[in-house]
Amino acid sequence: MGPIICWLLLAAIFIVIELVTLGLTTIWFAGGAFVAAIAGACGANLVVQVILFLVVSIVLLVLTRPIAVKHLDSKIEKTNSEALIGQTAVVSQEINNVNATGQAKINGMEWTARAKNDGAIIPAGTNVTIVEISGVKLIVEVETITSENNKEEVQE
Predict the structure, then answer these.
(1) Cα-flanking dihedrals φ and ψ of residue 37, to 5°?
(2) pLDDT at residue 148 greater than cutoff 70
(3) What pTM, to 2 d.p., does this model score?
(4) Among residues 115, 118, 111, 119, which one has the least CA distance to residue 143?
(5) Hey, is 127 helix, strand or coil?
(6) Contacts 24+ apart (CB under 8 A), 63-67
(7) Same domain flag for 88 and 26
(8) Helices 3-21 and 26-41, packing angle to 10 deg
(9) With contact defined as beta carbons under 8 Å apart, do 141 and 132 qualify?
């Protein structure tokens, strides 16, 4: 089997691996193998083919993978609990990290809640912003409430 066939077979293997894993890693090596096959068809010796394979694969991986990942990741929608981060919940049971108590309600569902600041005690009825999710607990911060007559802040 000639080197050109080997490079094309290697490129096909890299493409199949990429299709199975969707990791945006092996596709760049398929490009390198394809360039090496073209070089072999043009009469380049095996050392030049291997060097071209390595250089093209690494250049494609380093220069184009971050761009491809950025564009593909931007189309992924947040699902489930990730979508709650940044939203407002209402404290339904006083949040007190020291006593390990607290619940908040968002979208009709009750969640165990803890304050981001360990020393904070957040009373029931307070609006809070979800800053992260740790396991099955909402980690929240108090929202500042502003009205025309007064400005209230729940102390943390």
Answers:
(1) -65, -40
(2) no
(3) 0.47
(4) 115
(5) strand
(6) 64/28, 65/24, 65/25, 65/28
(7) no
(8) 160
(9) no
